[in-house]
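Need residues for this backbone.
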């Protein structure tokens, strides 16, 4: 029999992502519509262990859907990784009458939710990460905004690269996944897209391509480099030394996490957040909200964490064909 839910909590954990505020808003308002009390847990699991918990109402999430970041804050928490910390967190939930928690974050946040579930607190995860690296879902909140932010920056760098007849290496985020690099590389018309899932580390082949393209009259060369490969600055020095062509590295960094979320991120965060509130109010436990074949689904966390995700071979082959 499903556990009766009277009060739910909501927290954001791990790296922030555009659209997290839209998700918080949806969880709060749908939870209230379902007749439950909603508590905001500030600064993730760190704040939970320090009882940084406040009741939220419909007005407390007004005027946040367009804001980047997370109004609840986020923080790393080593204490929560211990069994003692997990027991303490569950007891604090009980102290505040919290029957279930919606956790917005990536796979690391899910592992934390999994531990909290084992201590008797119902949990539901929402995929909030710009990296698109969660295997159980086709969409993660924040990805669309991040790739558009990166693409706009790449277009600007390309303008000056062309003016100075340079080679430009632009490093984008994504942790160990290459989705941001692949999407930005294809959308920006890059000559090379280096992603950890596919790159063979044959730098000489890139050098040969740059030299050959210059002989053909091409005045610039754009390389999109994924964070999982990195070392863009040292790569630029080696390429310049080998080709004699001025080469510059630009690391876009945390600008990709910030900014007002796109319409797509606001919409998905709202619909998925509302669905998470429904699922947890039904008394379901240890679930992750996912988009599967374009439809919302709730998947067991254990199953979700076991799903592997990789770059589509056809999409990667297309990216190579279009760069020639």
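Answer:
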């Amino acid at each position: 029999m499903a556990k009766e839910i009277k009060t739910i909590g909501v927290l954001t954990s791990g790296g922030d992502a555009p659209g997290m505020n839209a998700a918080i808003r949806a969880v709060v308002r749908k939870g209230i519509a379902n007749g439950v009390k909603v508590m905001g847990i500030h600064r993730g699991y760190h704040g939970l262990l320090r009882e940084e918990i406040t009741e939220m109402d419909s007005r407390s999430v007004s005027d946040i859907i367009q804001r980047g970041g997370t109004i609840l804050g986020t923080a790393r928490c080593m204490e929560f990784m211990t069994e003692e910390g997990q027991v303490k967190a569950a007891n604090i939930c009980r102290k505040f009458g919290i029957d279930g928690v919606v956790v917005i974050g990536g796979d690391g946040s899910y592992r934390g939710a999994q531990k909290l579930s084992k201590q008797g607190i119902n949990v539901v995860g929402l995929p909030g990460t710009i990296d698109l690296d969660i295997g159980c879902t086709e969409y993660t909140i924040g990805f669309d905004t991040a790739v558009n932010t990166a693409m706009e920056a790449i277009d600007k760098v390309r303008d000056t690269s062309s003016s100075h007849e340079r080679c430009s290496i632009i490093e984008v985020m994504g942790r160990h996944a290459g989705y941001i690099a692949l999407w930005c590389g294809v959308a920006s018309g890059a000559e090379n897209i280096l992603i950890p899932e596919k790159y063979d580390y044959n730098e000489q082949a890139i050098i040969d391509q740059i030299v050959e393209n210059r002989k053909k009259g091409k005045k610039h060369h754009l390389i999109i480099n994924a964070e999982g490969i990195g070392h863009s600055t040292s790569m630029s020095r080696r390429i310049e030394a080998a080709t004699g062509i001025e080469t510059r590295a630009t690391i876009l960094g945390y600008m990709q996490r910030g900014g007002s979320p796109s319409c797509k991120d606001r919409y998905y965060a709202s619909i998925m957040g509302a669905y998470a509130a429904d699922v947890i109010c039904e008394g379901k436990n240890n679930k992750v909200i996912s988009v599967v074949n374009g439809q919302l689904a709730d998947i067991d966390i254990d199953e979700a964490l076991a799903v592997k995700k990789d770059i589509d071979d056809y999409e990667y082959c297309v990216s190579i064909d279009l760069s020639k």
